[in-house]
Amino acid sequence: GCRLCRMTLPMVQKIHQVYSGHQVVVWGINLDRPDSLEEARRVAAELNLNYPMLIGGNIGASLDLAYKVTGIPTTLMIDPQGIIRFRYIGYRKNLDKLLASNIESLLKSP
């Protein structure tokens, strides 16, 4: 996986742990080659990730087009109605704090 993705994934894992059971679902989507499943498993094990990881197909020809992903890593927060409420492109050292703040605001909204 990409270096910036590896730096981002532990923060996403932290959010998964903190908000598990609070109407929050975390999914990872791998946009590497479809034959990179073993590498994705190895990275998940190495970083102790335990949220679901989906295989999204090749970048430029799959799920990334549907969600308008323009760079990786991309972190999306999608509300229960399927609307993308927050989008973060690239690595951010405080992503876990940003996501926690976003989640708190969404959980408080009616």
Keywords:
globular; alpha+beta; 4 helices; 41% helix; 4 strands; two-stranded parallel sheet; 110 residues; two-stranded antiparallel ribbon
Detailed description of the structure:
Helices cover 41% and strands 15% of the residues. The chain has four helices and four strands, in the order H-E-H-E-H-E-E-H. The chain has a two-stranded parallel sheet with strand order 1-2. It has a two-stranded antiparallel sheet with strand order 3-4. 13% of the residues are buried. The model has no long low-confidence stretch (mean pLDDT 89). Helix 1 (3-19) runs parallel beside helix 4 (95-108). The protein is α+β, with helices and mostly antiparallel strands.
Largest sheet: 2 strands, parallel
**String of helices and strands:** HEHEHEEH
Q: Mean pLDDT, as a whole number?
A: 89
Helical proportion? 40-55%
Strand tally is: 4
- Which radius of gyration do the C-alpha atoms yield? 14 Å
Cα shape:
globular
Quickly count the helices: 4
Report the β-strand fraction as a percent range. 15-25%
Main β-sheet, spatial strand arrangement:
1-2
Give the end-to-end Cα distance, rounded to a whole number of Å. Answer: 38 Å
